[in-house]
Amino acid sequence: MSMTTAINVPIISGPRAYGRRYWVFAVPAAAVVLVVILFPWLFTLYMSVHDWKVTGDTPYVGLANYAKMLSDERFLYAVVRTLYFTAASVVAPLILGVWAAVCFASKFRLRGLARTLFVLPMMATPVAISLVWTMMFHPQLGVLNYLLTSVGLPPSTWVYDASTVIPTLVMVETWQWTPLVMLIVLGGIASLPTDPYEAAILDGASAWQMFRHITLPLVWPFIMVAAVIRLIDALKTFDTIYVITLGGPGTASETINILLYQTAFAYYDLGYGSAMVVVFFVLILLISLLLLRIRQREDLR
Question: How far out from the chain centre does Cα 10 lie?
Fold first, then answer.
């Protein structure tokens, strides 16, 4: 004798069945985005159209703070310095990082140890590194001038001269962030197929020809990713410049980041400083979109 029991099992499928539960996860995430990201930007925009001082009234001035930047020579020179510093801080690590990636892709003795030592500068905080380099740049007590004079070269003024301060800061940035480029490009090289290289060797291609016609085109997307990362990071560099030079000597190393910090927190002109933040954000966004557009065009070829 058999007994059949009917059990009604509700069938739950599709987003409607769980639609009522989505808000439990979506609302907290939206609230965090609103509070942490959206609200500061909206408040910055609000301050940028007001004559916002620490004390006193905050009258609405419209676009006066933005118009002021067009005639502010200190701001315009800061823009030029920022672009100069950024370009050099991107190009130098890219060239050295690609070269290091090609070197570390080949097999040699103690390669693992060499890779570990090469990436060590990237592990330290920029402030700690800047303090160490500041001591090394000292005209009389710094080790760098001692090394120069020991080999018969004249001592350098490093960050204490307006003509050498930006290249010196670029040297610090290059020393710290070349390992990042190397790791990105090295990952791309490790994923490349070996067939093109084997065919090139059979055809008698040199190492430079294989790099120029095989390696470089294939890892170009990885190089562009490294360029975008370095570009954004170099544009917003603050700690290295502030710790080593404070924007000096004079204003020779005063980038937009340093200037807007001084304007907002030293001169307490929060309205004008907020306008600089907005313009700086737009500048970073436009340059980043330009690089991404170039990368997309390269992918379509």
Answer: 53
**Cβ atoms within 10 Å of 102's Cβ, excluding its own:** 18
The residue behind tokens 């500048």 is: 283
Per the CB < 8 A criterion, the answer to whether 171 and 84 are in contact is no
Domains of the chain: 71-300 (1.10.3720.10)
Verdict on whether the full-model pTM lies above 0.90: no
User: Are 159 and 245 within 8 A, CB to CB?
Assistant: yes
3-class secondary structure, 184: helix
Distance separating alpha carbons of residues 34 and 40, to the nearest angstrom: 9
Residue identified by tokens 């509700």 is 10
Residues 79-108 have pLDDT tens digits of 999 999 999 999 999 999 999 999 999 888
Element housing 74 (H / E): helix 73-105
Residues sharing a CB contact under 8 Å with residue 160, sequence separation 6 or more, in sequence order:
137, 139, 249
Q: Do residues 82 and 235 lie in contact, with contact meaning Cβ atoms separated by under 8 Å?
A: yes
Distance CA(171)–CA(181), nearest Å, equals: 15
Helix 165-190 and helix 126-136, axial crossing angle in degrees, nearest 10:
130
